[in-house]
Protein 1
Amino acid sequence: MKKIFNILLLAGTLFTSISCTKLDEKVYSTITPDKLSGKDLVYQLAPIYGQYRWLLEYQSLWDMSEQSTDAWVTPTNADGGWYDGGKWQRLHQHTWTAYDPHMESIWNALYYGVSTCNRVIYQIQSNGGLTADDEKIVSEIKVARAYYYYQLCSLYGNVPIVDKFDQPENYLPATNTRAQVLNFIVTDLRANMDNLSDAPNFGRFNKWSAKHLLAKAYQNSQAWIGVDKTDSCLIQCNDIIASGKYSLDASYAHVFSLSNSTSPEVILAFPNDEKNGVPICWPCYIQTRHGLNGPSFNASSPGFNGLRAGPSFVDTYDESDKRRANNFAQGQQYNLSTGAPIMSTDGSTPLIYTKNISSFTSAGEFDGYRFSKYEIKIGQKTETDQDWVAFRYGETLMMKAECLLRKGDYQGAAEIVNQVRARSFDASVPDAVKIITAAQLSANAVVDGVSVPDGVFLNELGREFAGEMLRREQLLRWGLFNKGTWSFFIPTNDDNLNIYPIPQTQLQANNKLVQNPGY
Amino acid sequence: MRQIYISAIMLCLCLNFCPPVHANALILHAGHATAPITITGQVTGPDGQPLPGVSVSETGTKNATSTSAQGYYIIKVDNPNAILRFSFVGMKPQDIAVAGRQTIDIQFESSSVELQEVTVSIGYGSIRKEEVTSSVARVGSDDFVKGLVTSPLDLLRGKIAGLAISHTSGNPANQNVDIMLRGVSTLAASASPLIVIDGITGGSLNAVNPDNIESITVLKDGSAAAIYGTQGTNGVIIITTKTPTAGKATVTYNGYASIDKIRNPLKILTAADVRRYKQDPAFSTINDYGSSTDWLKEITGTPVSQVHDLSVSGGNRNTSYVGDVSLRQQNGVINETSKRSLITTFRVNHAMFDDKLKLNFNISNNVVTDHQVPVETYANALLRSPTLSVYNDDGSYRELNNTGINPVGLVNEAKGSNEYNQLMMNGKIAIRPVKSLELSAMGAYQNDYNIYNYSTTFRSYAATLGGRNGEAYLNGGRGENKNLELQANYSKTFSKHIINAMLGYSYQDYTKEAWGMSANNFPLDIFGAWNIGSANSIKQGLAQLSSNKFSWKLIAFFGRINYNFDDKYLVMASLRREGSSKFGVNNKWGYFPAVSAGWRISNESFMKDVSFINDLKLRAGFGITGTAPTDAYLSLTTYRFDPSIAMYDNGQWVSALVPSSNPNPNLKWERKREINVGLDFTLFNKVFNGSIDVYHRRTNDLLYTYSVPVPPNIYNSIFANVGSISNKGIEFAGSVQLINKDKFSWSVLGNVSYNQNKVISLSGDVYKRDYLNVGETGEPIQTYTHRIESGQALGNFYAWEVSGLKPVGNQWQVVGAGDDSPGEQQKKIVGNGMPKVFSGLTTNLRYGNLDMTVALRGTFGFDILNQYRMQRETLSWIQTYNLPQSAFDKPFGGNDYNTAPPIYSNYYIEKGNFVKLDNVAIGYSFTIKNQPYLKRARIYLSGQNLATITGYKGMDPEVAVSGVTPGVDVLKNYPNVTTYLVGLNLNF
């Protein structure tokens, strides 16, 4: 027995001397926080801006801002395409629920942006004393965060405000009212915008894009929380105009072209790149074009034939309005390289987009005009090269015009409207068509089957900013979002539907959240 | 030599046929002798060859010797009634009464010890079957599935109660076996059992030649598997490969050839069908492109696969070896799909210093090349209009937008190939300083290299429609697995007490490196993947490069005691303390205890008179096991560079540095505790053998990826331990030896298991959920398939219930939705994809030289989501695509064709119950006489997956059922097949 004990003792000694009991994780390609330093700040900033592009990916902010309106619709195709469990139908007919995937995907995308902003601010601040440059960067990030909150406020209304990264353990953010959220946006923008550079910057916030965002917040204040901020909006618009940093582009098409980084009109863009952009501008091509349309652009992937223009919305354009041809792909499609008309696969039918949509649940494959505002590159890859225009000077001007309308200055508004409109008509077009008069602006007009004050201006907003993620807000400002009739939408007259529901998954994950009324 | 050989055989025959009366007479006669007797003789193996080194001893004495190189022995005994014991490694020991004889020649009958004493591996050691106190099942090579298998685990299909193995694809390159032990015990961690190959924990199945496996043992319950700690929950599969047999070198050849045929092909429209329907005004818009093509026929064939296996084994008492070379060429039914592997194995065992020191070296290597077609090939063959031609007039592939991809083009112009090399080697040294103690150390090293290359030509779809003149991918990887196992075994017998104790230490270290590159647009169509540098996309900045590396470690200390009192009362207790680098800093280490006990009732004196019971044992066990997360670093905050959210700043693109996980310092293993009660019995003169097990397993701290609010979190999900799940069940396995005569034997083996699963909770203190939606219906429906809900069983299909088609509007009428577009609120449980009952039945018949095995397998109590029907059984696609013939069925006996957009509903949920004729094998063993070289010859025929009885409408009701989304018959990328095989065994 003693012998055995000795042997075991020897073995045990041998064993403990060679054995290893350390369990640290050794990382190679994985990045852990201890590997980060101040030198990577520029990389840390990147997702704040890069995330904006994800708002235009599949199940986009674009869908939520445009497809629930008179301007656009995704019917179910006769081949069953774009049924997708009915989510596109529900989006258009305002029968969405908290379970619909759009609600969650955009909530996540926006709050991801908020979180990134808070985190990077914290990282900069925890590096020690802030330099002047650091202060500027923090201000810029706060402005960038305000854009995320602007969209959250616009879509969901009552959302939690989280303004810093370091929170107590197990902290869960609670719902704030829409008024609190809007106030937070305005306060943050006012406090920080003057710290930003005033030089134009295509892809990053500067002082002027911050002011533009502030003007937008004021513009929608009445519709969102019932507080009129027309005067405040006007001040911001006038500041931007007075700066002389931006001007209207001579060509409407150029603003949305592949070379729009040279346009004097663009205040802020979300740049895409076929090399760096895994996300794509989904509505710009793939969501809307028919599969046969790919060869027009020698594109490497076919379109999915979903998104169509609302026929009544198309009808608001005069035939002579160049924006009509720019914003909608219509009629016979051609191979842009050879000029040959595009035919169906068996050669029997030409690819002709017709304006009307025959059915909401079984649409013809060529039914409906398509969104074609953004130039499509010849040889386009699945990843697209379009730079999305988030803010442009034309919008600043039209915001000012809207303020003037609200203040009863129809003449002043008409001047701006015609200034913006002029480039979209040939000189030969008669003034009666080309020019919108103060008298026309002051009269009631029928929009979506409802006679409304300033209806002519609302139609002009629709035409000028078609597909720029503004239509829902426009209809809400005019009270038509639940009262108009268009495409396959009949009025719900339900004001609860003016904001979207808080996604069900978020309610599940955070019991401090309160669902919006009526859901 | 030949004479000796023949006379040995003659002697053996003589002995075998000696009439009993004669033998008795000898014994009586011998009773009178008193003087010491010298006995001589020769010992031969089952093959008739002399066996050197056989131990020959007189029982009850210390009198012993061993055989010479020629198998001869001389032993003197005092007692003419002495009993001589002949024992040899790997052979059934033989006790022979001397009975006064002076010459006793012995031939060992079987190379297997099974008949007498089955030892069962229990992990870090083995014990006699009678001593097992937990739920352990062993399958020897004789009972394996007979045929060509893609994975060694396929050998066990239908053979072990509670172990469900499904074969869901006929792809020769696909080795992933759908395997589930006693229900699903995890949500997000791996459901794969731990594989132990010849003592190497985490051994690679790739390195094992399926034809070279001696036995497979499965540790099923917690009390058995707890010795493997965090790797034990899904069971432990212990693979023992064939060991060297000492003696004159023997050479074995085993070869077989097989063909595959698609089983039960899906019924889709032919060109003639399309034209017939086009006559109907309702379908006049169907595109008729003018040709008639059977796409399935265009891409498939009846390939011949072949396997050749040659091994040599031999040695003497001290040193023995086995070497084996196996070439396996498996060709799939889809053209250009195949797998070729060359497995070489070499093993040496050596014992010295009176067996005080034993050395063992083992090396095996598998070189594999497989060829694959793009995954979408088969689906496109089902989808593409039969009126389209394969080629255009100019010989190019006919490719059109919106008609799917030409499958022939995919097969011929898109080549994927995976080459890998799996090396596994280990060495073991065992020292026995005193008889009762053995110390051993084992080191194992595994290394796998793999290179995957994929390329398309200028004639491919990617070029003609996608504008990419040639695409190429080249991905490589290297994995390195190192084990060190130290063990001390102590065994001692004190009168009626037998104690076996074991202490051990285990260290495992895994590192994986991977890299990849891809580019397209080549100047010439000649390189495939082998000149990526020439691609034009590199100059355009559109090529991609990547690399990554990770590692993890596992360390454990463990011990076990087996105590046996008088072969009546048995106790086993074990404890493992284990840590893994994968766990959070607060939970690096855990304890995994187990205890089990057995009572051999049949050995009690009161059972003496119960003659019909040969053996009866009641056992019960309790054990705790774990499941570790699959990936490393899950407990850490991590960041990554994400080009997809790059920023454009002053004309430059800046990559984004973003969080990729939330920290979870509390991350730990899933903790499963299990109670198992079982009864083993052998009845009616060993005719009937069986065991019943009842278990209850509960897994707590389930790992799942919970979505969390951002902010305050930096990432939108966290991998956390939340929730619990339970599985209860009963298993029965039994065998009946109906007839057991020399000429004729017939046995039946069967097993059946029933499991009931319940999700207890999905909430913890921090993360709370009532339910989780999982699974994916795929395009174009895009919703989840299953809902995991507390209080419910796993595997519930959660969908809309439809009552028919709406009279107008081209939509389904969803129950509860009225005229509205149906929403989430109308969804309900419409079925469950987790089978309740698994069963297997095998019958073995032998008549003379002819033997036959028939194996049936049945699975019951589950539903299947028929994804193919769901996605294609709608006439809304008829204009451009091919559809199943059933698309023309009018749903629910209504008057309307289904042209509504596909939705996920109960209409596509079908009963899955099936019984399969899984395996039939017929063999004939030749009687070899007067052959100097050939010792044994056998030919056999076998068929796999021959017939199925089921009400299921799809191709095959055998679908993947493990995991949290069971029962989905996915729109496959490879059809199921029936395999027919002919084989030949030769022994020299």
Protein 2
Amino acid sequence: MTGSKGFAGTAGWAGFAAMVAAGFALLLGLPLVFDLFGLLQMTVFAAMAVLALSQGFIWGYGGIMSFGQTAFFGLGGYAYAVAAMNMGDSTVPVLLSVLLPALFAALLGYFMFYGRISDAYIGVITLTVTVILFNVVNSTAGDFYTIGNAPLGGFNGMPSVPPLNVPGDPSSPLDPQQTWYAAMGALLLVYVLLRAILASRFGRVVVAIRENETRAQLLGYDTRLYKLIVFAIGGGIAGLAGCLYANWGSFISPTVFGLATSAQVLIYVLVGGLGTLLGPILGAVGIQYLISVIGAQEVVNANLVLGAVLVVFVLLVPQGLVPVVQGLFRRVPGLRRGRVAETAPVEVEL
Amino acid sequence: MALVALIAFNVANSIAVLVLLSLGLGVIYGMMRVINLAHGEFLMLGAYTTVVSANAGLNLWVAMLVAAPLAVGLFGLAVERLFIRFLYGRIIDTMLATWGLSLAVVGLVTTVFGTTVRGVSAPFGGFAIGGYQTSVYSWFVIAVAAAMAAGVWLVLRFTRFGLVVRATMQNPDMAAALGVSPQRIYMMTFALGSALAGLAGGVLAPVSGVSPVMGGAFIARAFITVLGGGPAIVTGTSLASGLFGSISEVATFFTTPVFGQVALLLAALVMIRILPQGITGSGLTGRLLRRSL
């Protein structure tokens, strides 16, 4: 990659600044536009967008095909719920909700990347781990399964998860509007963090590994370690999303580990666009909105629509919407025609 | 003594269920490198075919052993023509597309039949091992699993179709040069694998609750068995079923069925770390079983 294609290019900086500005505008503006219900919905959209970013990062940039990003999502949610019930103050639980899934991802990544198994196997193994977690947590009904003073509740889940509070002051929990600030703030933070990672030397090696793992190895990079770190970062981000999600509804249940949730995350990224960060965010918001619309009527089933969307995109628009739209813009005057076709995801800056 | 016999019987049954669940998937994956994430839904469709046609008055055995594989085999044929054939060689895309298919089928079946659990009662009744009561139907499950594995092996090993399929698997271009159409072979293999899944779903319908989401309960076990088995379809799947079935049944005996499944999946993860290409693909067993089917 040359400098002009990287983060430091003028266009790259402009795009980045525009994205952050738009993010801040939404952060401050939405509470003025939406009523309480709308704002709550936006909060869960933001949480799902964080989850989508984690999948978009490890899949679109790291080339790691995780079918079980919800394992870390659920783990983060449960870690937050259990810790918050035991501790009162929410600061440490939030940190735990990031660290625990990140560590778990690192452990799992060790098995997968150091075993040098193929992409397809990674998909199946991550899927299996999610199913294991679902089965285990689902069977934790009863008083026996209590951590400190937090009953896990089995398939009924854990109701009344304590909300976030002002750091260090458990007596002042956040109201819905402040929770929105927290969720949208987290989304912005994760976006900026991922951009920074991708602009760094580390990020460039990661993309190089995605492009050609053997070549990266021959150049002397330990690709296993890089993938492990990418996977752990993705796990931590998914855990943060789980924390936000548990907060949003004050509730967490084993369905967060379900196959349907895992599929949804993949659909966010695939629809939005692989190899971009904007794509997964837009995909998450769009698909979540679609699900809420479908939920409001009874003619078609949400699974049917989501499944159809997934099949159609894989067959017809495998690169996702954001790259397609960017391609259209690039075709406008001044640019060579042939470039559109060879636009690699590497160049995408949004 | 009776307890040991009972456990042995349960282990055999658990192995048989794994063989049923994974053989269809194994045929499709082993022959075509296509990971069909909708496999669980193929099983579910087989189970629904059995229940619906048996409740409509069809003889249960005909519904189970003829209608279910036929219906799901045809469904598989349609799926292959409509989606899968555009995705050969793109293994991740196939996984995504079949996952989409799986969601869509779950959604469709939910719309048509609702979410209620249906079922047909298991024929034959029970028998006693010492003081323990157990089901005669389990013998039938074991018999069908054995017949299915033997049947696939015999077809691959001794028939002309099996020879052509194996040749296509090894080198599609060479097979095409010799006048075989790989496209046709893939189509037939996919339909065959689907039919096996349908048969398995039919046979398991009386012993498992039939609902639109039942596939999800099977899918992880089926995959992990196929991957654990490695490249030799019948030998690998059977050996992996034997290993994982025993582990899960013994763990179930000492804890709960849930932890039995967890033990199965954990054992599989460890095994894939040790033998990344499965039992018949790597390590000492891989060398011994290199030429098996």
Protein 3
Amino acid sequence: MTSHRIRHEKARVDFGRPISFHFDGKSYTGYAGDTLASALLANGVRMLGRSFKYGRPRGIVGAGAEEPNALTQVETGAATIPNLKATQVELYDGLTARRTTGWPALDFDLKSVSGRFSRFMPAGFYYKTFQSRALWPKFEHVIRQAAGYGSAPEEADLDSYDHSHRHAEVVVVGGGPCGLLTALNLGRAGLNVTLLDEQRELGGWLLSYPHAIIDGQPGYDWLKNIIAELRSLPRVQIFTRTSAFALHDLNLIQAVEQLQDHLPLAERSETSPRQRLHRIRASHIVLATGAIERPLVFGNNDLPGILTASALTTYLNRYGVAVGRRVVMQTSNDFAYQGACDLARAGCSVVLADTRTRPNTVWEQRAHAAGVDVRPGYAISGALGSRAVKAAKLVKISADQNSISGDGPTIECDALGSSGGLSPTVHLYCHDGGRPHWDEEKLAFVAPAMGRAATGIYCVGGITGTFGLQPALMQAHEVSDAVLAATGKASVGERRSIETDEPNAIPARRIFRVPDGKVEGHGKKAFVDFQNDVTAADIHLAVRENYRSIEHIKRYTALGFGTDQGKLSNVNGFAIAAEALGKSIPDVGTTTYRPAYSPVTFGTLAGPHEGDTFEPKRYTPMHASHVARGAVFENVGQWLRPQYFLKAGEDQDAAIRRECIAARRGVGIMDASTLGKIDLQGKDAREFLNRVYANSWTQLAPGKCRYGLMLDENGMVMDDGVTACISDEHFAMTTTTGGAARVLSWLENWHQTEWPDLDVYMTSVTDHWATAAVVGPKSREVLAKVCSDIDLSPSSFKFMDWREGTVAGVAARVFRISFSGELAFEVNVDANYGYHLWEALLAAGAEFDITPYGTDAMHLLRAEKGFIIVGQDTDGSMTPFDLDMAWAVSMKKPFSFIGKRSFARSDTAGPNRKQLVGLLTEDPSIVLAEGAQIIEAPEVNPPVAMLGHVTSSYFSPELGRSIALAVVRDGIKRRSPEGQNAGRDRLFAYFGGQTHRVQVVSPVFVDPKGERQNA
Amino acid sequence: MLEHVSRSPLHAFGLPLQATAINDTRGVWANELPSLGYVSLRGDSKDRTFVEKVTHSLGVALPTSPCTYAGTDGAKVLWISPDEWLIVSQRDRIGSLAADLKAALQGVRSQVADNSGGYTQVLLRGRNALDVLQHTTVYDFAALEPGRVVGTTFGKSSVYAHRSGEGFCLVMRRSFADYIWRYLVRAAAPYGLGIAVVETTGHAALVVA
């Protein structure tokens, strides 16, 4: 079992700390510092799943974010996380994980049967097969099940997540040698530097390259020293396990920090978040994101045991794991040599096929010294094996073109590594519009070192195609100096040359697809994209089917989709497409790099915006009183308002009926604190009101109130409310609850842009006032018990008057206004006393059985009076005239008002507009549905002329029958008695498949003369 | 006079009963400063008469440079926008302060509106106070200098914020206070949140053990 472990002292795992874990129901042992992938490989686990389309056996390919195959479901129940790459899961004690693919069982996969018929599943298979919408639902379930991947958790997430907003002079992304050196140079100069690295420890590729000599020191010592100094710099902040996954406009970086995922479940803190989303705004960004090795494309290259050469190297050097003992590697470049040497020195037999006929002589000598069997001019044209790689078929390839020039041996092996060159990790550079360019010498899409220095974005190291350690470190010095110059800081410390023991690299061979001597599509499958089962033949097929743009080829074949986002496959795919198209690689270009670089959990993105901090909930000062009295709340905008108050044994309808009857016959009380309130002061406040409201305010005396309709430029009603004259230069406006903020901006906008000459200022006082509306015939008696300094008598305190006084010992403004049509007083006090006022009024009203009522009763009471609710009975197309409210429009004001001119538009002034009416059903027990269509005849034979619709509909306890408000074409003339006389008042309302005969009437159903509110 | 029946916006959380003097056991300490008075003042900062009359009436130079505040223990004046200020004072003084100001500004283009019921404020301090604020808003609080006040987002709501002694003061609208407090409690959880005793005599502050 442990034959794969190579216990060497440079390994970054702690062999003294064994860790037990479970995978697919079996128990295994790894060590602290392992990833799930390294531990599984150490235990000889090769096959981790089946492929997406063909059900082929698959194993681990990479060692990091590039991994396409090893998707695992970690933990169970509420803690489960789907589709984590085993290469990124840190091992902890008791970790439980399972594979996510292979259905119904790993050993027997349904698709492996279909795989034999794979010629029937070409590129675009789904598009071609399921063009019929009728067929799709039948197949969808089976296909989704078979396609596999992890399952979303079904229980609520127990973890918490948060967001952190940071600011930095410099953010360095990537803690490899270049990122570290740059951060050090900048930190030494005193800059505020934030260094982000996705790994558990800093070092990047150096962790896989422990024998490096840098600046005369062993690589690890160099690393240790630089990290120690960085940590000592007070203005440098280092975040490990933190993946920068997006770079947005104006240098905003988003990064996710894994705070607890590496801890055993029992050791995780409940008070700390599992993951934290950092949003960092930086003046300068240095991208030191390195490069990812891409494999070569060859036949059966997806067998378990075939990895990238760099992954083989990483598993050996960093984790002390030899994936196999008999290793065959192939390369197009110098970068595979170090790993080959290390594997040979660790006791593996290593054959290295170099596709170049003339390898780098320095490396060749070192390889021979280490015992590597180097085969220049050879390539692996195909792998052999069924569930794991068993052998590699070597061929001799031509020096000048990518074709087979001779046969080669078949070499048995249990691990195969390939290197097709390095692909710079340019993703972040490209997220906000940057484009990489093709470097034909480096055979890579690279970002320029000075990146977009004008906007503060710099690149250093592998991302620029500077793959050698020594030149990359020198480039780090140059970039550091450029950043320092841009920030006006002097550099600290000398910039001497840093020597390494790495030989100078010689050019790589330009090869992506290793030839097998056959026409593409006729040999063994050669995979470009493992996660989406895209082969080289699929790309050729897409081109034959005339897909020309790489973006289309991507979507037709699925190249580069999925959780790995094509980190291994994209460049090979672009190159193969270029060949098939007969174009150059830069002409084909790349697909678009979009965030996120690697998957981010929804929990992290949501952060604190969940539970009781999902959305602001606004409460009135009386909220505790409502809760204590059984209120059921509804959201009105962000406010919570009582909808009705339930008493024992009541249902919603009964509660509303009781509340309405109390307000009509006795006394009710309603919390109106949420209404928008705007204080206006200035010599021209009155004139301002004249311009923003349709009606006239010229005659409104101090102590008086008036209802106003606010119109938009089109003459349509946008808000309404009562405004009181406090003094000639001081008014108190109310708005609808939902309209408060909009109305204030509207007023400010008109004042600031159109009429800055008017002497008026306005301020929101919505939150300052708590408002209790005491409503009903007994309201005067209730108020009298708690208010002694206002003369409440009808002759002195009339309807639409307001008075200043003291209520329940608190300074108050009392408005005699009514939204119910009853005698009513709205008492306003400083919100700190709102609760006190409410309780005092309830105590005073106890002997009259004062009844708190909610928004449902409020709506019903106002509908009985035909009072509109803006936004319910109006929809942005209703003028005051449509509402039969010409009385609230003054056409005689000397200055115009907003919306006036639009009344002259032909449509606004024209006939047959929809107008507000009341409706009475012939059957008084039928309550129409709101939204029901109004039609002319009982028969419904489409097309049917739609005359209007029901806007409000209730069962009126006061009248003992249903009532409704509606907007109906030419409705005002249809109303009784005029409409009745003309025989036009009979219409039909259609809903739920039935028509109901209705009579068009006045919308004022109760007390049409207004005697009650004036009482 | 009526203090016993007054309920501050964060009354429901029962903070006074949980309060202790600040010690080392928590990373962040906070509490509401209840029962302060607030007056919204609007006028033209380029109108010298306006500025002089306000300055004279309040005894505080009206701050006209953006994002600054001025004040004494008696009255603090926060710059809100080029023509808007928020005056904060002891609750029992606010009535006369507003009346005096209104009288002084007779005939001057301006607005004086008592908004005492509409606002409250929370004091925040402790070694992790800055960390907590970073969780709540995009503003760079580390860069906030003493004497400056900023209006900024707080989760999906907003606050006015300035440094207060060794900590921060957050001024918020009444109806959003519940949300903001809950958000603060959540953001502070990783560091440990303590409810601090509020010193109410003289300069309002959190009491250190």
